[in-house]
Amino acid sequence: MGVGEDLRTLANSIIDSYELRVRTVSTLINQAYQLLKSFQIEIENMIAGLRDNLARAESLRKKDFDQMISDVIERRRQREEEAGETLKRFQEEEGEMISRLREIILRGNSSSLEDIKAIKEDIFKRQKEREKKIITTLQCFQIEQEELRVALKKLLSKGEGVKIKDLRIVLNSLRTRQSDRDAELIKMLEEFEIVRGKVQTQWQAVSRVSG
């Protein structure tokens, strides 16, 4: 077996490992995402129960209740969408990357063994960074969902003794926590975009060398 064939075999093994990790991580992350989504019905039922309690205890109109809590509910919906979009983009871009790498190998690669080994180290490092960002996004979704669930449960425990002021206190607390977390999430997403850019630039360069 010649040097060129050895390099091609090594490159293919790297891509195979890369693809296996992408599939495994995507499956696990998707399972976690679907589990988080499954709690939506429970939260909706809790909101409905709290709405009814306040209607009976404080004569709070359902329309007014929905308006008071709308931004918190919308926030949860946006978090869910962000998590779903981030996961979808990860899967699409990783799949595209794998296809591009296989095309490069088929065209023939003039890189040395050292070049390929360096690429191997870099690609797995950046892959882990991307995975970390996705996990962080899901964690934000999970934390805010759990905070909302606990808050609703606490209000429901008061039964018909719950007051409008209790709802306002809880909602203000949730909004404060969400606001503090926003700064962290924005920074995380900015770093995620930087990683995406570096990965794309790197493999565009490899493609030019191999063409």
What ranges have pLDDT less than 50 throughout 5 or more consecutive residues? 205-211
The helix/strand order is HHHHH
Average pLDDT works out at: 76
Give the N-terminus to C-terminus distance in angstroms: 23 Å
Give the count of helical stretches.
5
Largest sheet: none
Gross morphology is rod-shaped
**What is the CA-based Rg, rounded?**
24 Å
**Helix-and-strand structural type:** mainly alpha
How many individual β-strands? 0
Please give the share of residues in helix: over 70%
Count of spatially separate domains: 1
Report strand %.
Answer: under 5%
Which helices and strands occur, and which strands form pairs?
Blueprint (H helix, E strand, L loop, with lengths): L2 H36 L1 H19 L3 H46 L5 H44 L7 H47 L1
Description:
The chain has 211 residues and is mainly alpha-helical. The chain has helices at residues 3-38, 40-58, 62-107, 113-156, 164-210. It has one domain (3-210). The chain has five helices and no strands. Helix 1 (3-38) runs antiparallel to helix 3 (62-107) and helix 3 packs antiparallel against helix 4. It is rod-shaped, with a radius of gyration of 24 Å. The chain starts with a helix and ends with a helix. The model is unreliable at 205-211 (pLDDT under 50).
